[in-house]
From TrEMBL:
Main localization, broad class: plastid
Pathway: Carbohydrate biosynthesis; Calvin cycle
Molecular function as annotated in GO: ATP binding; phosphoribulokinase activity; protein homodimerization activity
Species assigned in the record: Platanthera zijinensis
Keyword Membrane: no
Ranges of residues in domain Phosphoribulokinase/uridine kinase: 56-254
Protein name: Phosphoribulokinase
Membership in a protein family: Belongs to the phosphoribulokinase family.
Length: 400
């Protein structure tokens, strides 16, 4: 494996004088192709060996919408536990496992909490974020170069000294804006948008911020309202670019439900995405409605309803799989799994096994957990295909 290792620091990208200081920093060099950086090189750009490839996944969602839970499910599909960088800043937002590194895009806030207050902008506003640096650093990692990424400290509201991020096999960039900047968007091998309806978002935020963070109901309402215009303008618009959207809505099984406990969840899968074959129920391309409750699946009120079929989403052809309701017994999930195809599992029952393994995670009894698990397996499959493709290209290149 050859890895190019110029270190991009936040400072090096802003100040021309620091570019020369950092230009020749090379921290790691494995065997393989070596390209020397000329001392008088004007640019930090260096061409890296094609032997190394980081697959980049984008996960977009508003704060408190289940990104961390999704990340825990995804990391588990690859095996091993994810932890913050060892010996680093205790308030780091990064999670590293054997295969994946998850970086939080809040680290690219260019304004700290006070700066935002002074300028009267929210963290969702592009003016509070450094997209040039985000692009440079995601590109560097994708090409196999380590970066010195800034840290936004959620405890202090300040920008902390940067942390070193080495190129992983799979880089997940999660946060408010992974698909906002076209340059960053183009670096993504796959993208997901978690689309939580306002009613559900409110219920989740209350549950977490009141119970765990001691906020009052009024302050939670006020914070959601204050964020809404910027959320609509800058975050929600990104879903049109996503390869896959998990939409979470109130149930339709209980008339006028206002409890928000039972959920209707849709998995919107774009057609024609390389190495991503949408999952289907019973018969690919048909329109299907299925109530699985009966002899093989225990369902208490209000029951469970699945739907599947083709649709159009922001002018793209998509397949949509929907689940309304919740499971009573996860050990019976295999019945549902056996009617789904294109799951990219490695053995019969892998979806059910993953769900049972994390039955304590939020959403494990409904479509949020089921669809997050399925997307995790699809990402593993996509990753394996990309790696295979690169290996085949290398073999071809050696023949030439
Ligand atoms: N599928 C789910 N079903 C029910 N509640 C959920 C689900 N996912 C998340 N939640 C609730 O939302 C809260 C936030 O989830 P999580 O920490 O995964 O979100 P996040 O997007 O990473 O948040 P933040 O960006 O603010 O750190 C959880 O504590 C939980 O209460
Ligand atoms: O939307 C957010 C992303 O998670 C945060 O609100 C943003 O990062 C600002 O942080 P803080 O609320 O700590 O000032």
């Amino acid at each position: 494996m050859a890895v190019c290792t110029t270190v991009y620091t936040a400072a090096s990208l802003h100040s021309p004088s620091s570019i020369s200081r950092h230009r020749n920093q090379q921290l790691f060099f494995f065997s393989g192709e070596k390209r020397r950086l000329g001392k008088r090189s004007n640019s930090l750009e260096i061409s890296c060996s094609a032997e190394f490839s980081t697959v980049v996944i984008g996960l977009a969602a508003d704060s408190g919408c289940g990104k961390s839970t999704f990340m825990r499910r995804l990391t588990s599909v690859f095996g091993g536990a994810a932890a913050p960088p060892r010996g680093g800043n205790p308030d780091s937002n990064t999670l590293i496992s054997d295969t994946t590194t998850v970086i939080c895009l809040d680290d690219f806030h260019s304004l700290d909490r006070t700066g935002r207050k002074e300028k009267g902008v929210t963290a969702l506003d592009p003016r509070a974020n450094d997209f040039d640096l985000m692009y440079e650093q995601v590109k560097a990692l994708k090409q196999g170069r380590a970066v010195e990424k800034p840290i936004y400290n959620h405890v202090s509201g300040l920008l902390d000294p940067p942390e070193l991020i080495k190129p992983p096999r799979i880089l997940v960039i999660e946060g408010l804006h992974p698909m906002y900047d076209a340059r960053v968007r183009d670096l993504l091998d796959f993208s997901i948008y978690l689309d939580i309806s306002n009613e559900v978002k409110f219920a989740w935020k209350i549950q977490r911020d009141m119970a765990e963070r001691g906020h009052s109901l009024e302050s939670i309402k006020a914070s959601i309202e204050a964020r809404k215009p910027d959320f609509d303008a800058y975050i929600d618009t990104q879903k049109q670019y996503a390869d896959c959207v998990i939409e979470v809505l109130p149930t339709q099984l209980i008339p006028d439900d206002n409890e928000g406990k039972v959920l209707r969840v849709k998995l919107v899968m774009k057609e024609g995405v390389k190495y991503f074959d949408p999952v289907y129920l019973f018969d690919e391309g048909s329109t299907i409605s299925w109530i699985p409750c009966g002899r093989k699946l225990t369902c208490s009120y209000p029951g469970i309803k699945f739907a599947y079929g083709p649709d159009v989403y922001y002018d793209h052809e998509v397949s949509v799989l929907e689940m309304d309701g919740q499971f009573d017994r996860l050990d019976e999930l295999i019945y549902v799994e056996s009617h789904l195809s294109n799951l990219s599992t490695k053995f019969y029952g892998e979806v059910s096994q993953q769900m049972l393994k994390h039955s304590d995670f939020p959403g494990s009894n409904n479509g949020t957990g089921l669809f997050q698990t399925i997307v995790g397996l699809k990402i593993r499959d996509l990753y394996e295909h990309i790696i295979e493709e690169k290996a085949a290209a290398r073999v071809e290149a050696t023949k030439v």
